[in-house]
Amino acid sequence: MATTIRYDSCLTLFWLMGSVIIVITILALLSIAVPELTDLSHLVSVATESDVIEAILITMVAALAAVFFLVIFGTPLAYVLSRSTFRWKGIVENIVDIPLALPHTVAGLMVYLLFMSRGPIGAPFNSIGIVFEDAFAGIVVAMIFVSSPYYINAVREGFEKVPVHLENVARTLGATRFHAFRSITLPLSTRHLLSGSLLAWGRAVGEFAAVIMIAYFPMVVSTLIYQRFTTGGLAESRSVAFIMIVICIAVFVIFRWLTRTVGRYDHDRA
Amino acid sequence: MIMIVLEQVSLALGEFRLHDVDLRISKGEYLVIMGPSGAGKTVLLETIAGLRLPDSGRIILDGIDASGIPPEKRRIAIVYQDYSLFPHMTAFENIAFGLRLQRVAEPETEQRVRSLLVEFNIAHLINHYPSSMSGGEQQRVAMARALAVKPDILLLDEPFAALDPQTREDCMTMILAVKKRQKLTILQVSHSREEAYGVSDRIALIIDGSILQTGSADDIFRTPRSPAAAKYAGIDNIFRGSVLRCDGTSSIIDIEGHQIILKGTVPVGASVTIGIAGEHVSLAKEPRDTVDASLNAVSGVVRDILPMEYAVKIRMGGALPLTAVVKRNDGRTAIPTYGELRVALFHPEDVHLLEEGV
Asked: For residue A270, is pLDDT > 60?
């Protein structure tokens, strides 16, 4: 019998190096969690403040609205990018990625200039009564802008993984292109759609800079934490932060658990 | 009655291109499209199906110009080499897919799917997902799915390539039975001579996006009409030479100083390419004993010996390096050994003119 190799020096080294990141993340979480959990009465009092509850709800709902918008408008774009070749495709792909490369304050400024009440998009909407400046709609728009590449790229990757042959077969069996998309490509990309949505939602929830440029009020959680940090001090902002951490982790864990079997076809379920 | 007409169909697709493809396929014909990898065979099928649009030329299906007809209205079904079953659907749902699109009533759909499952011997797979099926099973489901919509034309893109020999034979028998019963027109891309001989009414040989030759399996493999076709058919001996003399029934061609007799007339002075199948070359022992003077004879030394399943391929050296395919243990010819001097003999009728230029 050959000698069992108990450890691999290369993998061990990689583990040691990689654990730096894990350790920092855990320490960061603990630095908020430990003081909060040792002063539960303060935590509870902050958690039940109407300002805090309102900010959390606004953040969650605005992020959901942003994801909803992306599903409706980003999905077709992702499909077109995955299935067609055209002359300016490279340029379009770069345009999709622009929000990834920009500082978020710049993104916020762009959103503000476009959607402010005198802006090229803001003005016509303003005339029909839809306001973006310091309004819920402004938060959503800023969130859409910064989270769109996460959604579009994830979904596009999902579409690319569905073999064109499957669509071709569906077409010859009598399906229009749209029907082939709906009945074959879309169900087979469900997992990418879900993970793209979750990524975009997480990005939207976390957005601060782009949001405050167009809508300081109503406050999203990031704005509230910043405002408390600059006015009330560390303890005030830390409690809000801890509540946010708990909610975000819960959402990710629950979402992943609920969708663990959705869109998987690599095993027989008969 | 002509089912499919391709008129000067051209299509450029990155590296690929179809070049002025002309093809007429009769109703109920089984045409096998052969050619080396990357010759454009799959592109040709997809163009006929309407999944790709030709840059120029016309496709006429059952007398109607197909240019404005989308794939879903062409009554053409396709089966790919990878079967392309919908992985999120059971065998039943896969086969019912097209019927449901045609709004066939559900009881009739069910009845039709079930009878196809029985016919293809896969009734036990009805609720199985593709991931749990073997290649042969997936192939049958794919075939049943294609036939469920009762297409006029069936396109098969190397459907048997990945199957074991027994399953392949079963599938070929099955498809021939279906074709006979339904008067289907079938186009099949294949790499296999066995399939070509087994199922085809006719073969189209496509190389570099052009159709080089159409004809029976024997035409394609025994009498190729161009150097490229000869190469594809596996003709071992392809040589260029020039015509020295012509006496009205046969011609003498000079190849590297050897005078080779060819049955047929070619203008004197023309440069030609000829092909001789290795099977038609025999190797006699030197010195020549009783050799027919009307045969071509080229002597040389045995250079390479390559054993094959039923024969041995022997490559000779010399100015005209001929290759002979000698049957193993046929009792008459002893297998030559390396370095042995032999005379390669072949009939003037077995010298095929592949190309003629000036």
From this structure: no
